[in-house]
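Q: I have two molecules that I believe assemble together. Could you output structure tokens for the complex as a whole instead of separate predictions?
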Amino acid sequence: MQRLLFAFIAGGLFGAGLFISGMTDTSKVQGWLDVFGQWDPTLAFVMGGAILPMAIAWTFTRGRKPLVGGTFPAPSDPKIGRKLVLGPVLFGAGWGLAGLCPGPSVASLSYGGWPHWVFFGAMLVGMFAAPRVRARLDNTVPAE
Amino acid sequence: MLQTIPVDWIWGLIGGLLIGTGGAVFLLANGRIMGASGIIGGLVDGSGRNSAAERIAFLIGVFLLPILIKPFYRSFDTHATTNIAVLVAAGLLVGIGTRIANGCTSGHGVCGISRLSLRGMVATVFYIMAGGLSVVLFRHILGVI
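A: Yes, here they are, computed for all two components at once.
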């Protein structure tokens, strides 16, 4: 139960932050990506603001255990394969196209109107199909 | 001095601090990395079956809090395109791309960079570059968005 409560609080902070920061406004996200147009640096402030408490949080994980039990995530695997290039490239292409990424797509569902539901539905389909695409990538190049 | 800083940047910073605090709570309390694509994707493809309730509780928070804050705003326009083909194509790309990448803006960007993860930084560089090229191509060259 505690685990669910903390998950809800974390999600709430995330959703509130996405709304307040303007990151559910697709024109601000596309404005950040549009270096040849009217460039909007807001996203850099959001990223910087978000990284700060997270960086502090990571330092607290050393030699400790999570509050509700379990273990902290292992250090990230340093392997850089082609999935780490191809995935972000596909993601970035869609991100630029609609100005939405997974977090803001959920946060904006209640007030963004039907376009947000269309995007969200298509994203779920993409996520459903992803394991098959991933398996094919693993099979064709075993030397990742 | 403060008057010379656009108010959007300040709200961006405050919102960012909230996002990071959410990530800190999820990490320190539950021992989880706050990655939106992983949390949703694990529910969709079944890989997160064991932690389904925790994922759903998180997503309810993400969905609900903007509803509670929104009444304090006179208006909020997300400026989303109404071109269905663009929305579907973008959604599919984001869905497949983030799951192949094993992370998105929150997981690789916020949580990865803050622990100086090389994977997080590499992914972030590539999705921002691809996003920039996407806007150049679809807005300035093809004029679709």
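A: One point stands out. Chain B has a mean pLDDT of 95.
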